[in-house]
């Protein structure tokens, strides 16, 4: 006979008392995730490269009555990531949740793709995600729990004529890194999952938005017929950060209006 733990069920989406780090937290999706986590009770450390934009994001977290802390960090630099983790440990004594949101997109026809741009995309999207997970993962291993959420993309699942050779490859790498870490770290009670959104209108996708032909190609591929909105991202983010997803690891959740279903 099954017995429900009423307390657990009632608090399945409660993030009260949790400490989260969000890389790329001052970007469009990063800021949305920070606000979502704060609304469900978490204190949030916002990281990125520019202090001024981080401070703006902190104000939005504090608006929801939670603690927000801005710590600059370039995720491609291991020393920066180590320093970030030390500062968070010193201030909060633990790290419950990590979101790796820092990322860039560059689009060129594959045959003309400048190798410097290819390397930059891989460096930020793959190396940056790996370094963030590596150093936060150490803390989570030592404390015996943690929730890591990487941000992938539908472009890691299927190709697209829009010039995504580097971006698509980088997000496919994020997907497999997610599964790899999930299998390695399950024994430490760390879950590692990816959220793979379709298009949101943010500075990262501005180029697509401004190109009517490309915009139509994108929207035609989404059965629900629209781009994602911030609230779509918050639902998935809170789910993976909260106890509701405790037995779920190594998964890639497509927030895509059915795009990858067809
Ligand atoms: N916008 C979309 O439609 C969409 C769709 C699928 C996936 N994504 C992914 O979501 C994530 C966020 O995208 P966004 O649309 O919010 O873009 P954005 O450009 O608004 O935000 C990205 C953030 O990452 C930061 N960043 C870049 N390089 C960094 C580095 N080396 N160190 C630290 N921070 C760095 C940027 O400063 C920025 O704040 C990215 O990983 C992107 O690939 C976005």
Write structural notes for this entry.
- The protein has a single domain (14-254), classed as Rossmann fold (3-Layer(aba) Sandwich).
- The chain is 45% helix and 15% strand.
- It has helices spanning 6-10, 28-39, 51-62, 78-92, 115-143, 165-185, 206-209, 212-220, 230-241; strands at residues 19-23, 43-48, 68-72, 97-100, 146-151, 190-197, 252-255.
- α2 (28-39) links the parallel β1 (19-23) and β2 (43-48).
- α2 (28-39) crosses α9 and α5 runs parallel beside α6 (165-185).
- It starts with 5 loop residues before the first helix and ends in a 7-residue tail after the last strand.
- The site of nicotinamide-adenine-dinucleotide has 28 residues, from α2 and α5.
Summary of the model, kept short:
The protein has 262 residues and is an alpha/beta fold. Helices cover 45% and strands 15% of the residues.
What low-confidence regions span 5 or more consecutive residues with pLDDT below 50?
none
CA-based shape: globular
Which ions, cofactors or small ligands are bound in this entry?
nicotinamide-adenine-dinucleotide
* CATH architecture name: 3-Layer(aba) Sandwich
- Distance between the terminal alpha carbons, to the nearest Å? 40 Å
Number of strands: 7
Q: Can you list the strand order of the major beta sheet?
A: 3-2-1-4-5-6-7
Structural domain tally: 1
Residue share in helices?
40-55%
In the CATH hierarchy, what is the superfamily? Answer: NAD(P)-binding Rossmann-like Domain
* Overall average pLDDT: 96
Strand content: 5-15%
Work out the radius of gyration: 18 Å
Structural class: alpha/beta
């Amino acid at each position: 006979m099954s017995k429900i733990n009423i307390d657990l069920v009632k608090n399945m989406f409660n993030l009260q008392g949790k400490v989260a780090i969000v890389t790329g937290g001052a970007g469009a999706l990063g800021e949305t995730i920070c606000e979502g986590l704060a609304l469900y009770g978490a204190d949030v450390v916002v990281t990125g490269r520019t202090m001024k934009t981080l401070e703006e994001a902190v104000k939005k977290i504090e608006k929801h009555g939670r603690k927000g802390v801005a710590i600059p960090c370039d995720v491609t630099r291991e020393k920066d990531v180590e320093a970030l983790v030390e500062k968070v440990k010193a201030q909060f004594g633990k790290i419950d949740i990590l979101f790796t949101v820092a990322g860039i997109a560059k689009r060129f026809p594959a045959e003309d793709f400048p190798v410097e741009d290819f390397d930059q995309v891989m460096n930020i999207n793959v190396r940056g995600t790996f370094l963030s997970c590596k150093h936060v993962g150490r803390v989570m291993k030592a404390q015996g729990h943690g929730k890591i959420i990487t941000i992938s993309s539908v472009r890691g699942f299927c190709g697209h004529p829009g010039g995504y050779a580097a971006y698509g490859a980088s997000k496919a790498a994020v997907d497999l890194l997610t599964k790899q870490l999930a299998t390695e770290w399950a024994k430490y009670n760390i879950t590692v999952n990816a959220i793979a959104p379709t298009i949101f209108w943010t500075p990262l996708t501005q180029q697509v938005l401004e190109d009517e032909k490309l915009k139509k190609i994108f929207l035609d591929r989404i059965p629900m017929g629209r781009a994602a909105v911030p609230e779509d991202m918050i639902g998935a983010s809170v789910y993976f950060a909260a106890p509701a997803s405790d037995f779920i690891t190594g998964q890639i959740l497509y927030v895509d209006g059915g795009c990858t279903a067809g």
